[in-house]
Amino acid sequence: MTRADKHILYISKQYATMESAANIRCHLMVKALIANNYRVTLITAGKHPEIISENKYLTVITLTANGVGPKRPPATNPLQWPLLSVVPGPDADRPYLNSTLQQAQNVIEANKIDLIIASGPPFYLLAGAKLLAQHNNLPFIVELRDLWYHGVWWPYKHYLDAHSAKKHEALCVKKAKGIITVTKISQDILMHAYGSAKHDKFTTVRHGCPKEKPITTTAKNNHIFKIVYTGQLRGINIANESATKRLIKTCIHTILSVTIGKRRCHQLKVEWMSPHYLIEAMAMAAKELPELKAHIQLTFAGESFKAIDQWAVQHGLENQIVQLGKLNATDAQTLAMKSDLLMINLYGLIGPKKHWCIPSKIYNYLATGKPVLGLLPPGEAADILKEAKVGFICHPTNVKQISAQLINLYNQHRSGGIKLTPNQTYINTMSQSVQQKKYLTFIKSVLNTS
After folding, report:
1. DSSP string spanning 60-110?
2. Do 202 and 166 share a domain, yes or no?
3. Which domain holds residue 36?
4. How many domains does the chain have?
5. CB distance 301 to 327 below 8 Å
6. pTM exceeding 0.85
7. Of 399, 145, 149, which is closest to residue 272 (Cα–Cα)?
8. % of the chain with per-residue pLDDT over 70
9. Which whole-number Å values give the CA distances from 93 to 60, 104, 128, 152, 336, in the listed order?
């Protein structure tokens, strides 16, 4: 068979817009498939239930958020998630899963499908793809954009919820013909958990760097030192809690954890993603170097928080800290490219010495050619910035270290620019086009062995 004969059923809730890294990733991978003459039928989420034939290679079936799909004749051999089986969480949604299964079964019966690809989260779609593959004797690939059960704490409601996630992660990894992760350490975690004998089943395909033409900013005496953060922040509510309230919540969580197995993301150090450490460091730097206060601006592009404004006032930085609110992906990247310094942070993990997660914005940052202040624990994100030779890494909670680095970078900026020699050869390996080629090579290898 030629590639033009291969028909892929692609299941991903993220596709309809280009406003998130997951959506952009899905667009890129689907684009790569159809550009190489694979036929793709994509089942995804959208505002309205409809079937759109975008071209002779791509058909998009959209379901609403509550699982309403386009009306079609019932499948000859219908499929639903077993009524007495727990839908695997932490993001379980039985109506959406069943609607996906119904639409997918219709596609399979009406077409010669060669491969199923499912991307999660939501993780229940991976379990759904496994069920579809077994029901129709088809090969399938699972793409884990986050780790599911091993390597991260998700907010499971009870023991059955956690057990279901553990069970279906294991079944997906063992039964799938291929497993795609987005970071190397997450791949290593899964291989360690399930054995590396079939290491050829695994590959890492990153989100990748977009093509950008870096904008150089020239330092002048009156030029504001612009620090920019784009994207979501987390842990602000936890960082803003009183010690008493946090202790009470911890006690309640411990009781629920022991009695019914409830798990919460509070077992992550989510407050490390809160900017209060950076704001405190800015205030410390301004106290040590008074001129800095008149020449520095920290801009957040993303959801606005009252707590950030409160911290700014508390530290006398209300004129230095700006919240723009949410921007679309294009405007956020333009803002990043006009900055003097970009900032990225990450939550902490209890247990692992190396953090497996990489915020997707790191690839957008690499594309700008700008220096990056990484408030990161040891792990793959910090390693990438170091290898790219654009990162200035501080521990997320070390206020003195962050303050000293801010002064260092400000002084460099005022003296003509922050000294950088980016490792462009390494950065190029992270490009979206390279990741698309790697993805295609892996899909082809799975099809050739199925």
Report:
1. EEEE-TT------PPPSS-----TTSPPPSSS--HHHHHHHHHHHHHHHHH
2. yes
3. 3-208+431-449
4. 2
5. yes
6. yes
7. 399
8. 90
9. 21, 16, 11, 20, 36
